[in-house]
From TrEMBL:
<dbReference type="InterPro" id="IPR051448">
    <property type="entry name" value="CdaR-like_regulators"/>
</dbReference>
<comment type="similarity">
    <text>Belongs to the CdaR family.</text>
</comment>
<dbReference type="InterPro" id="IPR025736">
    <property type="entry name" value="PucR_C-HTH_dom"/>
</dbReference>
<feature type="domain" description="PucR C-terminal helix-turn-helix">
    <location>
        <begin position="486"/>
        <end position="544"/>
    </location>
</feature>
<dbReference type="Pfam" id="PF13556">
    <property type="entry name" value="HTH_30"/>
</dbReference>
<dbReference type="InterPro" id="IPR042070">
    <property type="entry name" value="PucR_C-HTH_sf"/>
</dbReference>
<protein>
    <submittedName>
        <fullName>PucR family transcriptional regulator</fullName>
    </submittedName>
</protein>
<dbReference type="Pfam" id="PF07905">
    <property type="entry name" value="PucR"/>
</dbReference>
<feature type="domain" description="Purine catabolism PurC-like">
    <location>
        <begin position="11"/>
        <end position="129"/>
    </location>
</feature>
<feature type="domain" description="CdaR GGDEF-like">
    <location>
        <begin position="336"/>
        <end position="434"/>
    </location>
</feature>
<dbReference type="InterPro" id="IPR012914">
    <property type="entry name" value="PucR_dom"/>
</dbReference>
<dbReference type="Pfam" id="PF17853">
    <property type="entry name" value="GGDEF_2"/>
</dbReference>
<dbReference type="InterPro" id="IPR041522">
    <property type="entry name" value="CdaR_GGDEF"/>
</dbReference>
Length: 556
């Protein structure tokens, strides 16, 4: 018995209990699936009928002309499999208009010319359906067991695909963001290309919160790809599917795909964790670069595994991803597990984005160096865009799956020399420090987007603090004594280019209150504080003051 088959009206009519039955209407609908059988004698049947139900009735609803057509339409709208009517108990025939209605909707109408025992019919059909369901579950259990054996024996996805093909008896498809796809058996090249294109456009960046895990892609009128994404760490890294006929029953096939997708996810994770055991060379290379032990660019690129370019250049981005554990008392083992999860996800995302990379985990920080060859379709800006997406995915995973773990990320300037990694890492640390201490920059991850803070972070505290005191000290001291918020008022006034209305709105104060504060500012600082050179110094000092204050608050 095939596991993917379903029982139809045609199959049911062949059962011995239907030997004396006659198909009175709906001959074109004998391929309708039968999922269950039950008796209904009430007129309002819609709430009690599910798709594929075969209804048994003595025809009480036919005794009154009013509503009998609506009764049949309720069954049709509910997608019932068909209706069986017994003659001799309540009625002796079916009106011609109902026969025509059933034919028009290809709705099977079966009659028993003489009374029958409905209990025998339900017992027979239910036993058939339940036995088939039992066989299906046994088959799935066997498939699951064999699937587990194959995934334990190797990380080769082809063994899993061959097993799926054996059970489904359908062409099987596997598309991955990190490795070449597989087709069992091979499909025409144009079909393969169409599937690759659909995967890249519709599946690879699937929002799993808004989408079902069951996906359909119509290849042509006779072929549909039924597909299931392979999800790891909340990301789609591949998809497994099979080619079926549009009208084929797929419930059993969906279950096979679900089992297979979970096995593929386990293989993907295992492969990535195995790679973590092979990163010693990467760690050594990163350490050598950080310590300045490699001076020749060609040597650095060769050790990274990059081909040496005759024309063109590589773009390199170096950065740090830091994992902050805010839950007190967390065990070291739990922390290490969280770090490994982030590391595996990061490595998988870099691979998914086709970025050559070096990764090293040290304590709660991951050092990253990515490389992308520049060509017509790949530029420096696209490297930054890919990294932005990766950081976003890592942060999203941590917020959803790791309890009270915050991700901080920073990347230095994008350079065309790998030996510039030490400078990139220094800049990356500055990005993380500024994003932590300056609220308006908390979503900035790249050094080149820090603006004036590039210079402020480069200046030593021994210079910056006196600079702040020289230009804002009188206001800071006055605020400390009188709590008048003059520093905040000056900041809002300058941010709004001297607009008193906008500054008052930003501060949530009455305009007269602002006027009083501005008078005090002029009294303490002199009337020239809005002159260009003085204003530039004040704006710089305000930024430096806020950065220093927030840094000190963070450290405390």
């Amino acid at each position: 018995m095939r596991n993917d088959r379903v029982f139809t009206i045609k199959d049911i009519l062949a059962r011995p209990v239907f030997a004396k039955a006659r198909l009175a209407a709906g001959k074109e609908g004998t391929s309708r699936q039968v999922g269950w059988v039950h008796v209904l004698e009430i007129t309002n049947v819609s709430p009690f009928v599910s798709p594929h139900d075969l209804i048994l009735s003595t025809g009480l609803w036919l005794q009154s002309e009013e509503g009998r057509e609506e009764y049949l339409l309720q069954l049709i709208r509910s997608e019932a499999a068909g209706l069986c009517v017994e003659f001799g108990t309540s009625i002796h025939g079916i009106p011609e208009e109902l026969i025509e209605l059933a034919d028009r909707h290809q709705f099977p109408l079966i009659v028993f010319e003489q009374p029958v025992r409905f209990v025998e019919i339900t017992q027979d059909i239910h036993a058939l359906l339940i036995n088939h369901q039992h066989q299906l579950l046994k088959s799935l259990e066997t498939y699951s067991r064999q699937l587990q054996q194959r995934t334990l024996q190797s990380t080769d996805m082809s063994a899993v695909l061959n097993l799926l093909h054996e059970y489904a008896a359908k062409p099987v498809v596997y598309i991955s963001s990190m490795e070449p796809g597989s087709f069992v058996p091979e499909l025409p090249s144009e079909t393969q290309q169409a599937i690759y294109t659909w995967y890249e456009q519709e599946v690879e960046h699937l929002d799993l919160n808004d989408s079902d895990t069951e996906l359909w892609f119509h290849l042509d009128e006779e072929q549909v790809l039924l597909c299931h994404p392979v999800v790891c760490f909340g990301q789609v890294f591949s998809a497994v599917g099979m080619v079926v006929h549009p009208s084929a029953p797929v419930e059993y096939l969906k279950l096979l795909l679900d089992y297979t997708a979970k096995a593929a996810a386990a293989l993907t994770l295992r492969s990535q964790f195995l790679e973590e055991k092979m990163v010693r060379n990467q760690n050594e290379l990163i350490q050598d670069l950080m310590n300045g032990n490699i001076l020749q660019e060609e040597q650095a690129q060769t050790r990274m595994g990059l081909r040496l370019l005759v024309k063109g250049q590589y773009w390199f981005a170096g950065g740090v991803i830091e994992m902050e554990h805010r839950l007190k008392g967390i065990g070291r083992e739990r922390m290490e597990t969280n770090h490994q999860d982030i590391l595996v996800l990061l490595r998988s995302l870099l691979k998914k984005n086709n970025l050559a990379s070096l990764i090293m985990l040290k304590n709660n920080q991951v050092y990253v160096c990515c490389a992308k060859e520049e060509n017509k379709t790949s530029t420096r800006n696209q490297l930054v865009k890919s990294l932005e997406g990766i950081i976003s995915d890592v942060k999203r995973f941590a917020s959803r799956n790791l309890k009270q773990v915050t991700i901080h990320a920073g990347f230095g300037k994008v350079r065309n020399r790998l030996t510039g990694l030490p400078d990139s890492l220094r800049e990356a640390y500055q990005v993380i420090e500024v994003s932590r201490s300056v609220d308006r920059l908390k979503h900035i991850h790249f050094y080149e987007r820090m603006g004036i803070y590039q210079m402020l972070k480069a200046l030593p505290q021994s210079f910056l603090q006196p600079f702040v005191n020289d230009h804002l000290g009188v206001l800071i001291d006055y605020d400390r004594t009188h709590h008048l918020r003059l520093v905040e008022t000056l900041d809002a006034f300058l941010q709004n280019f001297g607009s008193k209305r906008d500054a008052a709105a930003q501060l949530f104060i009455h305009r007269q209150t602002l006027y009083n504060r501005l008078e005090k500012l002029e009294e303490l600082m002199g009337p020239d504080f809005m002159d260009q050179e003085r204003r530039i110094c004040l704006e710089m000092a305000l930024l430096a003051h806020a950065m220093i204050e927030e840094e000190q608050e963070f450290l405390s």
